[in-house]
Design a protein that fits this description.
The protein contains 9 helices and 5 strands; from the N terminus they run H-H-H-H-H-H-E-E-H-H-E-E-E-H. The relative contact order is 0.13.
């Protein structure tokens, strides 16, 4: 791939924007120092590949950041791993952003950089990689909003049910689902899909304005919103299923908080101690990144 002026300008813009966001995130303690280094790698690759990927990533970052800060005083009462403002480290960043970065890198390597409409019939590879990025970020955003908002609403009630046993469980338990949490996961995916769609429409309009091409004969792009919504919802449910079975959940009798590992004064409630929360997030993103393009391909056959 030969570097030209446009490529250099895109890289410099991506570098500047990524550095600015990481600096702001570190200042507000949304990311730890190690999280900032990881976010820099993720942001630089994703933003250089496609600005639609970048907008989707930024939507995930800001939506999850706002959700994390929502009713923090209530969340600290039952979450033993609570951190002020989130302070996500490099492991958390990569567990949620690795596959968006991975497929963005493939996008650059095999398709170059730039914004392209989703068209599985005439532009299969770029469409596949972009949907993989969209699906992965929708999964991450959906799961984060489900966890952060689902536990924050209905503070006086306990409407959380175990996804396998379908019995009421304490807030914050791995594998717990609620009506608000499920709606929040769909909202998270919807926001990712909508932001991607808006950015793509603006990008294509600019290209048409400067006579870089016509895009009126391609497949419709609005199903991207539905794809994001569905991947956010399905990804969160997959995360809950994996967490219910492969993650340890216990109740600390002394602190009255949910614990994710065995210990003194901890009563086992559900799950096997096989995977951490980050590993579950990583697997959920992998599943949706691979399943998203195939589900989208089926969906686009109706349009």
């Amino acid at each position: 791939m030969i570097l030209n002026v446009a490529s250099i300008l895109r890289f410099l813009f991506s570098l500047y924007l990524t550095l600015k966001i990481c600096r702001k995130a570190n200042k507000k303690k949304s990311l730890s120092p190690s999280g900032c280094y990881a976010a820099f790698i993720v942001g630089l690759i994703v933003s250089y590949s496609n600005f639609c990927h970048l907008v989707a990533l930024m939507t995930f970052f800001y939506a999850s950041n706002k959700a994390t800060k929502y009713k923090q005083d209530f969340k600290r009462k039952f979450d033993s791993e609570f951190k002020e403002n989130g302070q996500r480290d490099w492991i958390q960043v990569f567990s949620n952003g690795f596959f968006a970065t991975f497929f963005s890198a493939f996008y650059i390597s095999e398709c170059g950089h730039g914004e392209r409409p989703i068209d599985f019939e005439y532009d299969y590879k770029p469409s596949w990689y972009s949907i993989a990025v969209l699906a992965s970020l929708s999964c991450s955003c959906g799961d984060t909003l489900a966890s952060e908002l689902g536990t924050a609403f209905d503070q006086s009630k306990n409407n959380v049910y175990h996804i396998l046993k379908w019995k009421k469980v304490p807030k914050g338990l791995n594998g717990g689902v609620s009506f608000i949490g499920t709606l929040s996961s769909a909202l998270g995916g919807f926001l990712i899909g909508l932001s991607y769609y808006i950015c793509l429409k603006v990008s294509l309009s600019i290209k048409e304005f400067f006579d870089f091409g016509r895009y009126d004969l391609i497949q419709p792009q609005w199903p991207l919103v539905l794809i994001g919504l569905f991947c956010g919802l399905l990804g969160s449910l997959i995360d809950s299923l994996l967490g219910a079975y492969f993650q340890y959940s216990g109740y600390n009798i002394r602190t009255m908080k949910i614990e994710n590992r065995p210990g003194k004064n901890v009563k086992h409630l559900s799950g096997y101690d096989l995977l951490s929360n980050n590993q579950v997030n990583f697997l959920s993103c992998l599943i949706m990144a691979l399943a998203g393009p195939f589900l989208s391909l089926k969906l686009y056959k109706f349009f």
